[in-house]
Amino acid sequence: MNVFLAQLLNGLDKGGAYALIALGLTLVFGTLGVVNFAHGALFMLGCFCAVTFRYLITLETVTIDPEKLSPWGSPVEVRTPLVQNWFGDFGAVLVDYSVPISILLAIPAMLIIGIAMERGLIKHFYKRSHAEQILVTFGLAIVLQEIVRSFFGANPVPQPIPSDLRGAADIGVWFGMAAHTLTYPWWRLIYLLFSAVVIGGVFAFLQFTTFGMVVRAGMADRETVGLMGIDIDRRFTIVFGLAAVVAGVAGVMYTPLLAPNYHLGMDFLVLSFVVVVVGGMGSLPGAVAAGFLLGILQSFASMTEVKSLIPGIDQVIIYLVAVVILLVRPRGLMGRRGIMEN
Amino acid sequence: MFSLSRKDLAALAVFAAVVLTMPIWLAPFGAAYPGLMQKFAIYAIFAIGFNILFGLTGYLSFGHAAFLGVGSYTTVWSFKLLSMDIGPAMLFAIIVSGVFALLIGYFSLRRTGIYFSILTLAFAQMSYSLAYSVLTPITNGETGLLLARDDPRHLDALFGAQATAAGLPQPTLFGMSVTGYTGFYLCAVILIIAFYLSQKIFASPFGMALRGIKSNQTRMNYTGFNTRPYMLAAFVISGMFAGLAGALLSITDPLAGAERMKWTESGNVVLMTILGGVGTLFGPVIGAWLIKYFENIFSAINTNMLNGLFSFLPDGVQTFVVTVLSKFVGEGWHLTLGLMFVLIVVFLPGGLVEGFHRLMVRLKRQKATPDGVTSVQPAE
């Protein structure tokens, strides 16, 4: 039972990342009708927002302290981050919490990147075929990842978890179990909550604001909304920016769990497309549900018991589910009848 | 049955001449060595095969590298178990990759558009992950499948052939070694045959049916035309071409690794086809050559070479130009590739072949204008 629960929880945080990426992907597909193969690259750019922020905040001064000596006799170099010089203890906290704080950098940065991408390139592809959209965004993804590589190199750049949040939470105790029966790392728990909040925020934004109402109307019937004198294109551009932000912050918070490297986007892209398809093209709740579902399935498939039963299942489970869903129920779990059914 | 229209025959003759004289006309570009020219020929075969599917039917497969990988593995296994002769190796590679394509195609072709792309991608990724993990007894996992001196090679043993005294056995064609220029000419001849086959397919009623499917599948269905077998045939044929290309890769360099099945490799062949021109005969070949050429040349350029090249500029400008350009060469040549790709899709969706046609039309028009009305001024 505990093993079961532990795997369930393990799957949930990965599922959170899948759900966030797939949410953005679906949002873009539902509004603009564009199949965006560069969405994984946006996730990767989000990761590197965190890396950049940490790099900037840890710029440091090096002073040589003649009093202290290192074990082999030379004076010790004392490195202090500039922020710590400026703000004292608050600066130290800033450095420690660089990952969550870099969300503040990631939001405007990703918004600008997203809007620039849509205005600069993708808007010319609304009327072209899906194949051409796939191709141009695929090319764009290559360009983005190579730019990142030329700045940050090819090696993964690990990001630390804030020191207060390391270690694991004893979740079992909360549910009245004995101590140490069910533990779960704090950061994963935070990621899970974070993704839930972001997903809730996006849904609330679409459901309860006028802007969201217009966007939903545009998703249902773009032309009519346009005829009512609403500049739907401008709203959709903002939606694209929003999708980029969601992917970006998902990336920022994921960096302590998986050290980001430049081809991370491509690795996640294939998965998130599978998630979108399983959930149903154009269905937002479907994307979220499928994201968590596939994350959990993947985590169960990597249990040793399952692996010994069906060898190799952990490697292919996601694709296998995608194949079965596509063949049996092509509109996905929650897709609307008649939308992209063959 | 083997005849071609006069136009196609001329195209084939030109193509054969161009391919066979590669060592001569590639020399000024610094690419006239057999290793690279083999790659040119092999990837051209791969792209020609891909074009039969994507160009004629419009179905964008994102998993073609799987067939390349299967072809490679089969070839190496044939070398290990049967004979070092490349005949059976190629035959088996084509058959096995054909069967594999039949399986994947049977399922994938139930869907169209982006679903088809994702299905093929999913199947290819599955093959890739399995080749890395569970199928290690067959694929030798990360190390890749290699030849060994004490492989059984039953057919060779049957005919009493003995392994040479030293080193690993080399692939042979009727006892003739296929390294260096022999290897290149072997690939070149197969490329010409592949080109001829694609010409035949393009001109045949079968090819017409595939084009009909591309332009409007529903209409084809309504006219009482069962499109499924045609699609499946096209998929299998194109898978076989990929298998053949994989076989040739393993023949010129007898090893096979799972990274050949990775989806970036599938992306590469899409890129080649698009760059050259989808649905044209020459396009995929030109695309494959250009990409392989750039991969080789651009990734070899380094900062010193750039400095030498721009030494005529004033110092500050030189540093600037070299710093900017160095991002695009060497390790960063993928950036160039990506940019090229985006630009082609945006400005020239028909690829280089279409660009060439447009250029020709414009030139013709310019030639024609001096006789007729030079320019028409609209009335104000």
From TrEMBL, chain A:
Keywords from the UniProt entry = Amino-acid transport, Cell membrane, Membrane, Transmembrane, Transmembrane helix, Transport
A GO molecular function assigned to this protein is:
transmembrane transporter activity
Amino-acid biosynthesis as UniProt keyword: no
Q: Name one GO cellular component term.
A: plasma membrane
Q: Where in the cell is it found?
A: Cell membrane
Q: Where primarily located?
A: membrane
Question: To which protein family does this belong?
Answer: Belongs to the binding-protein-dependent transport system permease family. LivHM subfamily.
UniProt-recorded name of the protein: Amino acid/amide ABC transporter membrane protein 1 (HAAT family)
Q: Which organism is it from?
A: Mycoplana dimorpha
From TrEMBL, chain B:
Tagged with keyword Phosphoprotein: no
Asked if Transmembrane helix is a keyword of the record, the answer is yes
The cross-references to InterPro entries, in alphabetical order and at most eight, read: ABC_transp_permease, LivM-like
Top-rank taxon: Bacteria
CDD domains assigned to the protein according to its UniProt record, in alphabetical order: TM_PBP1_LivM_like
Subcellular localization(s) per the UniProt record: Cell membrane
User: What membrane topology does the annotation report for this chain?
Assistant: Multi-pass membrane protein
GO cellular-component term (any): plasma membrane
Q: Molecular function terms in GO for this entry?
A: branched-chain amino acid transmembrane transporter activity
| Segments traversing the membrane | 12-33, 40-66, 86-107, 114-135, 178-198, 229-249, 269-294, 306-329, 335-356
Q: Which UniProt keywords apply?
A: Cell membrane, Membrane, Transmembrane, Transmembrane helix
Q: What protein is this chain from? A: Amino acid/amide ABC transporter membrane protein 2 (HAAT family)
Name its species.
Mycoplana dimorpha
